[in-house]
UniProtKB/TrEMBL annotation:
It holds the Pfam family DUF305. It comes from Aureimonas glaciei. The chain crosses the membrane at residues 70-88, 115-136, 148-177, 183-205, 258-276, 305-322, 334-356. This is DUF305 domain-containing protein. The keyword Transmembrane applies. The keyword Transmembrane helix applies.
Amino acid sequence: MLRNLLPLSGRTAEPSGHCGVPVKAATATAFVTAVLALLPSVAEAHVKWFAPYIVGAPPAPISRTLADPWFWAGIVLVLVFFVATRAIERSATGEVILKGMDRISDPLWNRLDDFVHVVIGAFFVAIFAVGGVYLTPDLKTPAEWVSWVQLLIAFGVFSKRTMPLSAAGIILLWVLALRDYDLFHLFDYLALGVGVAAYLVLASSKNPEWKKHRFEALRWGVAIALMWSSLEKFAYPDWFYPLVEEKPFLTFGMPRDVFIPMAGVAEFTMGFGLLWTPLVRRLSAISLFFIFNAAVYPFGRVDLIGHALIMAIIVAIAADHTRQVHFLPAIKRSLAGVPVGLMAALVVFATGYWGLHMTFYGIEGRVAPAAATEMATHSHNPEQPHGPQAIGGIGAPPMGEPDLEEVSAGAPTTNTGAPRDSRAAYEATMAKMHKPMMEGMAHPDPDVAFVLGMLPHHQGAVDMAEVQLRYGTDPANRQLAAEIIQHQTVEIQRMQNWLKQRGVTVPE
C-alpha cells in the first residue's frame, strides 16, 4: 500500500501500546475544524449551474476586493487558525492527533484506491445518465455520442490496462468542450480533470516512484479548482445575488456584501490548505466535506452529481495517512510559511484570473449576445428552480402554451406564450424602481442624490432587460437587452463604489 512507499520523513512509528487521543488534543482538533467549517461559504454550489452569468463581462476590479475590510477579516481569521494548527502539528500533540485520525480512517485508507475507482466510475455513469453534458452540469452538448464516451470512461477505470485510456478520454472531453465554450470558462474544470486523469495514469504505473504520487495529483487538482473558482465571488459578486436573495439562510444572517467576500476567502483558503502540511490539509478537507454536503439538500441532485467527484476526493484527502510534504517543504513546515504561502497563492491566482480575462476579452470585456441570452443558465432543474429562473428571469423555461383567447383577440404572443405575464413583469420593474429612486433624489447633497437616484434607475433597466430576455423573441431587442445588462451592471458597481468611498450607505 501507499503508506509503505512513503516513510514518515523522520517521524517515529506509532507505538503498539498507544490507546487513544488525549482529550485536549481531540478538543483542539475539533475546535479548529469547527472554526474552518463555520467560515461562510455559499454552500459551495457552483453558481453557474443555477444563476445567470456572462463570463466575458468585465470583472470587478481587484482593487475593490483589496479595499474590502471583510476580505481581510476573513484572511486574518483563517491565518490565525492555520498558524495555530501548524503550532499544534509541530508539537507531540499534533502527532497524537494525526495518529488518532489514522486509526479512524484506517478502513478507508486500506482500500483507498478501490474507493477512488468506484467514485470516478460512478460519477461518469451519473453524467452518462443525465445526458447532454460534457463533464459537469454546466457544459451542455447536443452530441449524444459524448455520453457514451463517458460510459466507456467509467468502465475503463477498473483495469490498469484501460486506466490510461480513461484518462485520455477525460482530457478529450475537455478539449471537445472548447468547440462550444471558450477557454477561460473551461479553466474552472481543467485542473480537476487533469488531476483525475493524472491519478489514473499514475495508479496504473508499474513504477513505484511515480505511483506513490497518485493521491497527491488528486489533491492538487481539487485545490487548484477550488482556488480558481473561488475568485468568481470577488470578480462577479452579482452572479451570487439571486441565490443569496432567494435563499437567505445561506448567509448565516450576515449582510450580502459581507457574506460573499468572506465566502470567497473560505473557499480559497481551504483549497490552499489542501496543499499544506498533513494536519492542515486533513482539517481543511473535513471542513470542505461538511460544507459541500450542506449544499446537497437545498440545491438538489444537480449539485450532488456535479460535486460528487470533488467530495469523494476530499474524503480521500482526509483519510490520507502520509506525512511527506513535497513542493517547498521547508516553507510549509515553518509557521511564517503559512502567511507567506497564502499571500503568494493569492497573488498568483488573482494575477492569473484578472490577467487572463483581460488577455482574452480586453479591458472592457466582451459579451456574445447569444451566449448571454441562451446560455445564461445551462442546467435549469424544474424540481429545484433557482435565481431568476424561479421568478421568470434569464434562462427560465417556457411557461406553457399561449392563452388561446388572447391569441384570438390579437394579443401579441412571445416565446413563452404569456403576454399578460410579460406585462405584469414590466410593471413590477417600474413599481420596484420608483420609490427608491424618488427617495434617493431627495438627499440634500446633489452629488449623492444623483447617484442614489441613478442606482435604482439602472437596476430598473437591468430588470426590464431581463424581462425582455425572458419573454421577447426579436433578435435585435434581445441583443440590446444583453448589452444593457452588461453595461448597466458595470455602472451600478461604479456608483456603489463611489458611495462606499464617501461613507454613504449603499442601498440593497
